[in-house]
Amino acid sequence: MAFSESPQLTDLYQLTMVQSYLDHDMQDQAVFEFFVRSLPDKRNFLMAAGLEQLLDFLTQTKFSQKELDYLANSGFFRDNLIDYLSKFRFTGQVDAMPEGTLFFANEPIVRITAPLPEAQLIETRLINLLQLPTLVATKAARCRLAAKDKLLVDFGLRRAHGSEAGMLAARASYLATFDGTSNVLAGQHYGIPVYGTMAHSYVQAHESETQAFRHFAASQPDNLVLLVDTYDTFRGTERVIELAEALKAEGVTIKALRLDSGDLGDEAVRVRELLDQHGHQEIGIFASSSVDEYLLMQMHYEQSPITGYGIGTHLTTSEDAPYLNCAYKLEEYAGIARRKRSHGKATRPGSKQVFRHYDKDGKIAYDELCIASEEPESGQPLLETVMQNGQRLKVPESLDIIRHRVKEQIQTLPADLAHLTRKEEFELRISPALQKLTDETNKQFNF
């Protein structure tokens, strides 16, 4: 069994709580909600991602005999827990915002309704599967806002925090409208277009840059992007220009030159001038090296001639916001609303729904947090039921459908929320019914 499929990929306290639930016959229906308490600095929105991987996990997860034996011999657990885990399958309901949906602080993104031990046991992996894709999709959406229609490619696999992170990041960036990835396995597994050029080591392995360029052209005539800054960017560009006419006679066209060092903006301008002076307007410029949305904003403002970007470390690690202040909390048990009242970490009780309201121009005006059973006169409900009785209700959405949703969602962002460097406030209204439930829950659990 792969580690990623095992429910034993969890924190010990999840299992110790389940042991106690079983000991005291606490197996009634529970409602847990996953949400983000506060948005990271410079983030005015987040983009939901990772639901597909979560649903896969919930439909496949089970304990192996080897895992059960380990737990039985750990000294923490009794036979009743081991027997329960030997039969464990997720049998609950999942309500969630579709992937690609924009959301804000204190809004439930995923709601789990299941017997208490089940809902508790999946917490760690649920957070683990939703946090990184949401971070990367949000980062990618910000890059797209900054870059407009430039080519954007995920280059982050080598700097990802493990192989699973590299795969999740490739998918999350693509659904957020990146054009492709360098990750070949992600290309095969998810159907994402793959992009790649050459490394400096390839050039260094040859006796000359010209020889390296010729060899690569012979091997990759339909994918010819040449890295020109191994030694001297402008001499490398001149060598490409010298080679271009000979290649054209052979029916080979150079797609672009790649820059991977120095001041990308200044070097791109000089390279563009050299190419244009020699009549090679058809050759683009592809840039990498510490690219993020802030550099993309600068390049757009300066009207840089760069036509595409490879974005690696800053994207895959969500470098300026590497984690979410997120939580998965019990909101109802045995038909009774519950809430956490800790200072700075209080929650709203009960099973909830988010309704989105738009202004006359189709831009997001505000969201309203309601009890799930409410039916307001206006507003679009954001959570939908995607799993019942442990079974999916429909086939997985294609990435093309999610990408289309993302484009529609981005169009609904008002200008202040689309700002990438200034934090703006967003209005989340609380329905009167939810406020009443909050007050009643406070009185009921007035310890």
TrEMBL record:
Query: Some GO term, biological process aspect, for this entry: which one?
Result: NAD+ biosynthetic process via the salvage pathway
Might you give the EC number(s) for this enzyme? 6.3.4.21
Q: Report the residue ranges that make up the Nicotinate/nicotinamide phosphoribosyltransferase domain in this protein.
A: 152-332
Would the keyword rRNA-binding turn up in this protein's UniProt record?
no
A cellular component term from Gene Ontology for this protein is: cytosol
Q: In which pathway does it act?
A: Cofactor biosynthesis; NAD(+) biosynthesis; nicotinate D-ribonucleotide from nicotinate: step 1/1
The UniProt keyword set, sorted, is: Glycosyltransferase, Ligase, Phosphoprotein, Pyridine nucleotide biosynthesis, Transferase
Which major enzyme category is it?
ligase
Where is each Nicotinate phosphoribosyltransferase C-terminal domain found?
A: 380-437
Q: Report domain Nicotinate phosphoribosyltransferase N-terminal positions.
A: 9-130
Hydrolase in keyword set: no
Q: Which GO terms describe its molecular function?
A: nicotinamide phosphoribosyltransferase activity; nicotinate phosphoribosyltransferase activity
InterPro entries linked to this entry: Aldolase_TIM, N/Namide_PRibTrfase, NAPRTase_C, NAPRTase_N, Nic_PRibTrfase-Fam, Nic_PRibTrfase_pncB, Nicotinate_pribotase-like_C
Post-translational changes noted in the entry: Transiently phosphorylated on a His residue during the reaction cycle. Phosphorylation strongly increases the affinity for substrates and increases the rate of nicotinate D-ribonucleotide production. Dephosphorylation regenerates the low-affinity form of the enzyme, leading to product release.
Task: Enumerate the catalysed reactions.
Answer: 5-phospho-alpha-D-ribose 1-diphosphate + nicotinate + ATP + H2O = nicotinate beta-D-ribonucleotide + ADP + phosphate + diphosphate
User: To which protein family does this belong?
Assistant: Belongs to the NAPRTase family.
According to its UniProt entry, what is the function of this protein? Catalyzes the first step in the biosynthesis of NAD from nicotinic acid, the ATP-dependent synthesis of beta-nicotinate D-ribonucleotide from nicotinate and 5-phospho-D-ribose 1-phosphate.
Q: Which NCBIfam families match?
A: NAPRTase_put (TIGR01513), PRK09243.1-3 (NF006696), PRK12484.1 (NF009131)
The name this protein carries in UniProt is Nicotinate phosphoribosyltransferase
- Name the source organism: Photobacterium marinum
